Amino acid sequence: MINFKTRLGYLLGVGVIFYVSYGFTNFLTAQRENIPEIIFGWEQHIPFLAWTIVPYWSLNLLYALAFFLCRNDVQLRHYAARLVLAQGIAVLGFLLFPLQISWQKPETTGISGFLFESLAGFDQPYNQAPSLHIILTIVVGAFYWRRFPKWRLPLYLWFGLIAVSILTTYQHHFLDLPTGALVGFSVLWLLPEYDIHLNFLTSSQNLTASHHRLMIYYGLGAIVCILLAYLGGAWLWMLWGAVALCLVVLAYGRGEAIFQKQPNGKLSAAAYVLGLPYFFGARLNILYWLWGKAKSAVIFENVSVGSITATKGFDAVLDCCAELSCYNPPKSYRQVLMLDLIPPSSTTLCKAAEKLATLQQIHSSVLVCCALGYGRSVAVVLTWLVATHKVANLNQAIMLVKQARPQIVISNVLRQSILQAAKLYQEKIK
């Protein structure tokens, strides 16, 4: 158990960092001249709701209380690390891109008036984008979401109200909200649950020409999104697309762990939000290519290949799709994650074939899935067929799979990887 003094020490330490850095950036910005203000025309219609200062202020209480609700040292250090990282990124944003809000707040009385006066005693109309209040809403909210799973609906509503309150108390302009959300979810992604290490410090793969080619393609897509965002207005949302495509570039450069797919088949909330435009496009791509076609097909005995969207009804699933969540997987769910459009390594295919062999022996129906059921899943089943001598050779295995999935294309590089994987598999069982 963590003693009270330790918890209090962490709170005071992080609190000092918060107040000193926040106040210092406010002071520096106040010395500047001609501080810009970014307002969308429709923001003039946002009502001032004095009572929303209560949920606005409640974040401070929830922020501090979390230090005393951490279950162990690891969770306490992790929570503090997220808060410090959030503060550092926000302060950097305030210094590099100073903004202000010049709106005058209507006079308020009672509790609301007292809270507004207390806020004015510390805060100034600077430190706007990214909204530190939104960043902390996400970071603190993630702690309570994990800590109290039975209270998720009221927590979701209350933290949502806290987020909206930055607008209805005239503390921020709208631009500060999505920029704050971007930083908040980036913090969760950079420091995933119970893991202080950054995801991309070390690469989990050997880069090939295919990796570099796809990194260039997606990188160019990100640049196009950024250029479109310069048009302003609604085009600014293209920056979200740029963030999503940069996430994909990182995945091809550093490995599938960038997508943070969890053992339950879901991507982490942070990875999902940051990459949402890409994931939405990937789902549309599945819909397009599988329109009017079977989502899965039996290949041999009780083994099928198919799309990650076709898992319902199978006793077991072997998931090869690193970039998409597997919704409602069966109890017997296994993963060997691979990136799309990249020939899997022989080691990865061997590992997948081993898991498939186990599942095939104890379940009446097994689905090996990827995005479409034409690439990664097929490579795994081909490896398994050859390695376990279900067929005489690779050519026969390919002919067998093509009867069910005629759209597949097996490159020479993939052939070599499958044959090497089959050899590895046979060496292990000797």
From TrEMBL:
The keyword Membrane applies. Residues 366-416 form the Tyrosine specific protein phosphatases domain. It holds the Pfam family PAP2_3. The keyword Transmembrane applies. Gene3D superfamilies: Protein tyrosine phosphatase superfamily. PANTHER family: OS01G0859400 PROTEIN, PTHR47216. This is Phosphatase.
